[in-house]
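Researcher: Going back to the complex we discussed earlier. I've cleaned up the inputs and rechecked each line, so this should be the final set. Can you rerun the prediction on the complete assembly and write out the structure?
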Amino acid sequence: SYVLTQPPSVSVAPGQTARITCGGDNIGSQSVHWYQQKPGQAPVLVVYADSGRPSGIPERFSGSNSGNTATLTISRVEAGDEADYYCQVWDSSSDHYVFGTGTTVTVL
Amino acid sequence: EVQLVQSGAVVKKPGESLRISCKGSGFSLTSYWISWVRQVPGKGLEWMGRIDPSDSYTVYSPSFQGHVTFSADKSINTAYLQWSSLKASDTAIYSCAKVGGDYYMDVWGKGTTVTVSS
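Model: Rerun complete. Updated structure for the full complex:
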């Protein structure tokens, strides 16, 4: 089955840039989506189809995808960005969805 | 407003059966797939499977195949997740999510906490 690997944690100072990676075999050929989950809350879609941004999501959130790595970038990080972040793809060969292992972003 | 409203938290004993619900509001469930996602407290998101409420076609993750069942009632715009025999290891938060155009989950329910304990 397809595996998506994320770093367990990323720490960043306020105002700086956080980059969260999502590694998978030839992930660049897949459409990658990203979710933000704050404690006690449901996940929220923050980036879809590699770099699309849903309505209401700040422009500070952006995504890219190439080769074996997709990246979620959070610019000008704020305290409110502290959360767990998950990448996700749909594996067409199995018709299954796959979530990444998740990354906890800590704002210092 | 488009939303998914899930049933409330439940406490069950091992071996008991359970059905939890996910009601669509502001849209028709028959126009979108619904995915179910499990989250054990302190752990990551696990995709359990999906249902197409228009025809009740289902796809299950191998990890959950045979242990849970998805269903839907179009007349009341509601999807269901059920167990026939719960285990303590089923203790988790279960969320339903609407699947958007490019296989992303754009609307999520708030989750149903299921506790299985003797």
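Model: Worth noting: Chain B touches chain A through 22 residues (CB under 8 Å).
Researcher: Good, that matches what I expected from the previous run.
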